[in-house]
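Write out this protein's structure.
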Amino acid sequence: MTEIQIIRTPAGEELVLLTRADYEALLAAKADLERQVAEYDALEDEALARIAEAAKAEAERDGYVPGWLVLGRIRGLTPLQAARENAGLRQAELAAAAGVSQAEYSEIESGAKAGTDDVLARLAARLGVEVRRLRP
């Protein structure tokens, strides 16, 4: 871009003077950004459709899928995180109920660590859900 000039009108309004080439470059950059946003939106729509299809497949396999789990999946949550948020609990509360540290619970909730069957059973009992609903 070449150097721009700013002109102040008698009313105090600032006007920007730039070359036609710079103006056209700005228009091209705007069009490129709009294209990128449209591509992102299309990818997001595709991802949401895949999530909805996965939830539908699970519903057909299991008979139903709880609404909190479907909404959690759409938001990108793990099943355990969706269940915790649905119950209105903090990680520390659920960790205490499961007999694990908050740090360990956080790893289980994020999927970085698999919870043992015993821990998942205690979590499910505290959340009032089936253990299978907590598994990714």
